[in-house]
Design a protein that fits this description.
alpha/beta; Rossmann fold; five-stranded parallel sheet; two-stranded antiparallel sheet; 5 helices; Nucleoside 2-deoxyribosyltransferase; Nucleoside_deoxyribTrfase
């Protein structure tokens, strides 16, 4: 079962309700990132302040899959369409939730955080891993309005996002 299949299975029984639209920014290039993405998506789908979660991996250009035989191998057409679609989805979101693996920080996720910040969208970050051993660059560390101490995405109130500072080392 592919990661896309697993994500579709997680979201298939979600009943619609009112709430915020979330753009879920996350890497999916190693097992830690994949697990973090699946867990966060499942938690957000249960959150009563969330109406919709946009997972870019579930909205591939013309239904394509850039992973062939376990290797990420996108072409230029896919890359351009993905970039445009992801920017549009961030523009349409109320909040960006970014997932960071401290030991292997995805540059695409960090770019999405920066774009959201520049677009005046609140950015909520969940970082896993030791941020003292694997410091986070000061731009994403300071650019988020709220750094989650643990995965409480199921109960986090996206209507009342208060400042919570990053805890860890920065570079």
């Amino acid at each position: 079962m592919t990661l896309i299949d697993e994500l579709q299975k997680i979201g298939k029984d979600r009943l619609p309700h009112s709430g915020k639209t979330i753009y879920l920014a996350a890497g999916w290039f190693n097992p830690i990132q994949e697990k973090l993405l699946k867990d966060a998506y499942a938690e957000l789908l249960q959150n009563q302040t969330v109406a919709h979660v946009h997972v870019p991996l579930l909205h591939q250009y013309e239904g394509s899959n850039p992973i062939v035989n376990g290797e990420f191998n996108p072409d230029q057409e896919w890359a351009t369409a993905t970039f445009d679609d992801d920017v549009s989805a961030i523009d349409n979101a109320d909040v960006v939730v970014a997932l960071l693996d401290a030991s292997d920080q995805d540059t695409g996720t960090i770019w999405e955080m920066g774009y959201a910040y520049a677009s005046h969208k609140p950015v909520v970050v969940l970082t896993v891993g030791d941020t003292f051993e694997y410091p986070i660059n000061l731009m994403p560390a300071q650019g988020a309005i709220h750094h989650l101490a643990k995965n409480n995405l199921k109960t986090f109130d996206f209507y009342e996002i208060n400042k919570r500072f990053y805890v860890g080392k920065t570079i």
